[in-house]
Design brief:
mainly alpha; single chain; VanZ-like; transmembrane helix
Length: 124
């Protein structure tokens, strides 16, 4: 069982693993994803929002005093993903609405993390 002081460490590790997963899925070429059986043809914006909500929630628990830096990092990460996808290096196209969904997901994730902290009685 995790002690209250180890939650930030666990959240940081989970954040880094989740960020790596999101970046891999976002930057793999379309043909490779199809060969692996991964398709995101439906509900793309919802998937973007959910991924960035998880990242924001984990990041805000892991780095409680650096939420502004976290928001900037995640916003630029989402933007960088769209720029790379637009460069046609990986056979995918950019979509500004994907980035907007990323930002909406970040807002939800930070809100959820704040509510969770409040409900848990102010865990560190």
């Amino acid at each position: 069982m995790l002690r209250a002081g180890s939650y930030p460490i666990a959240a940081r590790v989970a954040f880094l693993v989740a960020l790596a997963g999101v970046l891999l899925l976002a930057l793999f070429p379309e043909w490779l994803l199809q060969n692996l059986g991964v398709t995101f043809t439906h509900h793309g914006k919802l998937i973007h929002a959910a991924a960035f909500a998880v990242l924001a929630a984990l990041g805000s628990v892991g780095w409680t005093k650096h939420k502004a830096k976290l928001i900037v990092l995640l916003a630029f990460s989402g933007l960088a993903i769209e720029v790379v996808q637009g460069a046609q290096l990986i056979g995918r196209g950019p979509d500004v609405f994907d980035w907007i969904a990323d930002c909406a997901g970040m807002a939800c994730g930070i809100t959820i993390a704040s509510w969770t902290k409040w409900l848990a009685g102010g865990l560190p």
